[in-house]
Design goal:
Elements (H helix, E strand, L loop, with lengths): L9 H7 L5 H4 L17 H12 L16 H14 L3 E5 L2 H12 L6 E4 L5 H8 L6 E4 L5 H4 L4 E7 L11 H8 L4 E4 L4 H4 L9 E5 L13 E5 L1 H14 L5 H10 L3 H20 L4 E5 L22 E6 L2 H11 L4 E2 L9 E3 L11 H7 L5 E5 L5 H19 L1
Helix pairs in contact: 4-11, 5-10, 13-15
The structure holds pyridoxal-5'-phosphate (PLP).
Length: 400
């Protein structure tokens, strides 16, 4: 990345990020390079490039082999690094591949200790709780991190806003409480449009790029933004695991970035309006969205986050039966997991995204049988509201 890029404003960086080589290439849109291998005519130069990548760096010339490096993916990574304000970013085949790589690269896997704040995305929670990568986890409340961190703690992991409760956590405070221990923040819900954790001292900024970054429900991907020394082990793990992002997926992600701010801001405005209306609906007991009164006691919106985001949750009266009835009754909303798409998705965390989380842990953070999560898309708010109203009417009958 050229240093001059670092001062570009967000909207400009979204449009122009990762495009530094276009002038030299004489292209206007990103070329899609699907090569699995790259001819090596100068063996000494090839060895030098390979050695640089084996050490965790960028190639010095040839990409050599697609599991080591791909120019299309590298452009997407460069764009993400600029957006997150970090030196580097490393992309993976999915958000969970990125999370696994972070555990491996930080030393948390294979017997290391992690302090984590619930709720986390169900897959992340399960990865830690199951110990499948050999992590030992201490679950702590956000204000209990300092007490939970040990001499041998490899990583602190949290989300803000959290999935699915939309809890906000003060990142500067977490970084202070973690002391020498690196902090990994899953920034999937906020995106760099609303929040840039690295500016607050966070070491690793992770995204399920499947969500807002991809934005159209057609790409599975993950990415981690961090400084260059932290990127080296991430790349080494990626080469070893082989969990690389397909270049076609990287190309689609890069294509989605110029509209990211427009999409996030439009979804956020509609989510805020829906949260307001749902809060007084008789079939709804609680609404979770950072815009709601009392949802941001530390005043993080405006200070840490530029807005409340496009995901909300609600709890319906009538528990599981009523929630299931909403899932069946919606006609415009899509009853499906995932989030950050152009269309509005509604899902049941206890039954789907967070099914793998311990029952006690679910209850502890407020994932009740009546909880539904909505990722607001780009539809007209009135059409969404009409659909929700008719679905809640069905739910009201089902819950009695
Ligand atoms: C979906 C999600 C993940 C996992 O990402 P995949 O791309 O599905 O592997 C991780 N964190 C959060 C917050 C998510 O919403």
């Amino acid at each position: 990345m050229s240093p001059s890029n670092r001062t570009r404003r967000l909207a400009t960086a979204l449009v122009h990020g990762g495009r530094d080589d276009f002038a030299a290439l004489g292209v206007h849109a990103p070329p899609l390079d699907r090569s699995t291998t790259y001819p090596v005519r100068d063996l000494a130069a090839g060895i030098a490039s390979l050695d640089a990548m084996i050490a965790g760096g960028q190639p010095e010339g040839s990409s050599i082999y697609a599991r080591a490096h791909n120019p299309t993916t590298a452009r997407f990574e460069q764009a993400i690094a600029e957006l997150e304000g970090t030196q580097a970013a490393v992309a993976y085949a999915s958000g969970m591949a990125a999370m696994s790589a972070a555990l491996l690269a930080s030393g948390a896997a294979g017997g290391g200790h992690v302090v984590a704040v619930r709720p986390l995305y169900g897959g992340s929670d399960h990865l830690l709780a199951s110990g499948v990568l050999g992590t030992e986890v201490t679950w702590a409340p956000a204000d209990g991190i300092a007490a939970a961190v040990r001499e041998d703690t490899a990583l602190v992991i949290l989300e803000t806003p959290s999935n699915p409760m939309l809890d906000l956590v003060d990142l500067a405070q977490v970084v202070a409480d973690a002391g020498q221990v690196p902090v990994l923040v899953d920034n999937t819900f906020a995106t760099p449009v609303l929040q840039r954790p690295a500016e607050l001292g966070v070491t690793w900024v992770l995204h399920s790029a499947t969500k807002w970054l991809g934005g159209h429900g057609d790409v599975l991907a993950g990415v981690i933004a961090c400084d260059e020394p932290r990127a080296a082990p991430l790349r080494q793990v990626r080469i070893g695991l082989g969990a690389v992002l397909d270049p076609q997926a990287a190309w689609l992600l890069h294509r989605s970035l110029p509209t990211l701010a427009l999409r996030v801001e439009a979804s956020q405005a509609t989510a805020t309006e829906l949260a307001t209306r749902l809060a007084t609906h008789p079939t709804v007991t609680r609404v979770f969205h950072p815009s709601r009164p009392g949802a941001d006691p530390a005043g993080l919106i405006g200070r840490q986050m530029r807005g409340p985001g496009g995901v909300l949750a609600l709890e319906v009266t009538g528990g599981l039966e009523a929630a299931a009835a909403v899932m069946s009754a919606v006609r415009l909303l899509t009853p499906a997991v995932s989030l950050g798409s152009t269309d509005t998705l509604i899902e049941h965390p206890a039954g789907l995204t967070h099914r793998v989380v311990d029952d006690d842990a679910q209850a502890g953070v407020g994932i009740t049988p009546g909880l539904l999560r909505i990722s607001v898309g780009l539809e007209d708010v009135e059409d969404l509201w009409e659909d929700l109203e008719q679905a809640l009417k069905v739910a009201d009958a089902a819950g009695r």
